[in-house]
Amino acid sequence: MAMLNVAVLISGRGSNMQALVRASHEPDYPAKIACVISNDPTAGGLVWAQKEGIPTAVVNHKDYGSDREGFEAALDAVIKKHDAQLVCLAGFMRILTPWFVDAWRDRLINIHPSLLPAFTGLHVQQKAIDYGAKVSGCTVHFVRAEMDHGPIIVQAAVPVMADDTELSLSERILEQEHNVYPIAVRWIAEGRVNIHSEKCFILGEGEPPSLICPMIR
Length: 217
Ligand code: GRF
Hints:
Elements: E1 4-10, H1 15-24, E2 31-38, H2 44-51, E3 56-58, H3 68-81, E4 86-89, H4 98-103, E5 108-112, H5 124-131, E6 135-142, E7 152-159, H6 166-189, E8 193-196, E9 199-202, E10 211-212
Helix pairs in contact: 1-6
The structure holds 5-O-phosphono-beta-D-ribofuranosylamine.
């Protein structure tokens, strides 16, 4: 089976990146993490990836000042240098311009810790609590120029408990993020994800389904 080369873009601890790397070590997993790139040289995930022997790179946005396209051109060059065919944003804290998003259209995905389209932006677990949502979760989606929008590949739902804090809900959601991100990458690598009218259709969907809904614990 042909391997899909994946670039993972991080800005912090990179636990979703780690979940993707672990999945890529499973037998028959059809994707390989070709490089981990951070815009922040202090990102903890870089150290972890290096220990795993994965090529890493830093493209520091601060080196580019207000030149967003210069920053993105540098990112693009590193991604291409590693022959990546898919780019996974995993806690990458820079907003990408339409130039980059269009250049990687349908080959650029993101994980977001809410059930989109609800609760976009930052601190979305707290937003779900403040809103009184009974259910939240996470979404893996193709990236479009509008932040936290784009065709949904897979979602996992978790309950919001009455006594949840931002931290406790974040942890419950994060466990599911680590579950669903590798599923989305697998489906893309297997060529099973089609987009029609900005909606994803998964060929032969079934096990696992594209809605993960673990039991309330
Ligand atoms: C995750 O909650 C992800 O959904 C959001 O940023 C966080 C990154 O965490 N986009 P990590 O760096 O993957 O641990």
